[in-house]
Design goal:
Number of strands: 13
Oligomer: single chain
Strand content: 15-25%
CATH topology of the largest domain: Rossmann fold
Largest sheet: 6 strands, mixed
CATH architecture of the largest domain: 3-Layer(aba) Sandwich
Mean pLDDT: 85
Helix content: 25-40%
């Protein structure tokens, strides 16, 4: 057990559980992962407060070592230290590269995985947890991971769940997406039957509704549908572990405050960081980039309704206004910062990362300069910003195998014919 002083008595020594953002019964990480969405409605969010400082302050802890310490600290009833170490060595190695952009900004490259986006980490962690879930089921239950996803999220999931899969008669994962196709997908995974892409009439919102309504039902081959979209517990936990590992690299050699810059509209990333702060991550604040007149639906520009709900849930208990500082960043400023990084030999920045960097720069100019280090994650290779066809087959849209209305019965009937 972790030793805590009286000043940290608000932390629990038990495993972290999940409950609905609307309230309801708390359950273990693996049970929440198997369900995907709470039966009461809303989204799963942490139901307990955990002390993670033992992991983030571990002496000379590497990126992977921090994750290996943090995972069993968060879920001692679900993930033992030996499995945590094995998972960390498979998912969180090699560590992200760092690039010091001046004295007060540190760019951390999270886009070094197979699909060149930060989503690779949480997707690979989720795939590893599916292996744990299957082993604990002892062959009694079998699971079909699926998600309504697009772009980087879809590509990362397909890569994570089809890695090592060989069966062409039973897909390793199922994607729900727009009728006009998805870009960035590994063509071999679909051509060999390891993944299946189903187009949903009504687009992204309809696919998200179907993802929720399918949770817990059985596919024709007897497997239970288990959601693995970015709002589910396993993906949230994967993002959290990345943030903890990231901190071990960012804190070295500094005595000033540490801030983290987030891109426009990344509500799930922001709320993950806020939860980590509440458990002891020593980050002073989050710089939230806002694009003028971007049409964001809340004060932080979160575009996803689920993310807005989770942020509102956090704000009921904590001083959100002093933790998440909105800073406007223009397109011209983002382009200028990206070019400056490239001129200094830094990594090429995608649009979201460039906006986060521009917001960080403006925050330094407003008074943080010399008093704080701001961490700017590089979220993706800039090739992901391309909207049109590309010579790279992964960036050309892949059409769905078939298109159905957003109805569980329609999907199950279609899968019987595959």
């Amino acid at each position: 057990m972790l030793l805590r002083s009286a000043s940290t008595s608000r932390y629990t020594e038990s495993t972290m559980r999940f409950s609905s953002s609307l309230g309801g019964v708390a359950m273990s990480f693996l049970e929440a992962m198997r369900k995907g969405y709470p039966p009461e409605g809303g989204l799963f969010c942490p139901a307990d407060e955990i002390d993670i400082r033992t992991a983030v302050y571990a002496p000379s802890g590497s990126f992977a070592e921090t994750v290996a310490l943090a995972a069993p600290a968060l879920f001692p009833d679900d993930i033992d230290p030996y499995r945590a170490l094995a998972v960390a060595e498979r998912v969180f190695v090699p560590p992200p590269a760092t690039f010091a952009f001046g004295e007060d900004i540190l760019i951390i490259d999270l886009a070094r995985g197979p699909t060149r986006s930060a989503a690779d980490y949480s997707a690979a962690f989720t795939a590893e947890m599916f292996g744990l879930l299957a082993s604990l089921a002892g062959g009694v239950e079998h699971y079909l991971p699926f998600a309504a996803a697009e772009g980087k999220e879809a590509a990362a999931l397909v890569t994570a769940f089809t890695h090592g899969a060989t069966s062409a008669t039973s897909p390793a994962c199922l994607l729900l997406g727009a009728e006009d196709g998805l870009a960035g997908l590994d063509p071999e995974a679909f051509e060999q039957g390891r993944a299946l892409f189903v187009g949903i009439e009504g687009g992204k919102d309809a696919a998200l509704r179907l993802e929720r309504s399918l949770a817990g039902l059985r596919a024709p081959d007897g497997r239970f549908f288990v959601p693995v979209g970015k709002a589910t517990p396993a993906r949230l936990t994967g993002r959290l572990l990345v943030l903890l590992g990231l901190f071990t690299q960012a804190r070295r050699g500094i005595a000033s405050d540490l801030l983290v810059a987030t891109p426009p509209g990344d509500g799930f990333g922001l709320v993950t960081g806020l939860w980590a702060w509440s458990w002891g991550l020593p980050v002073s604040a989050f710089i939230v980039a806002r694009v003028p007149e971007s049409g964001g639906n809340d004060a932080f520009g979160a575009q996803d309704e689920g993310a807005r709900g989770l942020i509102a849930r956090f704000a009921r208990d904590y001083p959100l206004g002093s933790l998440a500082l909105c800073v406007e960043a223009t397109d011209s400023a983002a382009c200028a910062e990206a070019m400056a990084v490239a001129d200094q030999g830094g990594p090429p920045l995608d649009r979201a990362s460039a906006f986060a960097l521009a917001a960080a720069r403006r925050a330094l100019d407003a008074g943080f300069g010399g008093h704080a280090r701001i961490v700017v994650p590089r979220f993706a290779d800039p090739a992901w910003d391309l909207a049109g066809p590309s010579k790279d087959s992964r960036l050309r849209p892949r059409l769905p195998s078939f298109v159905i209305p957003p109805d569980p019965a329609a999907l199950i009937a279609a899968l019987k014919r595959v």
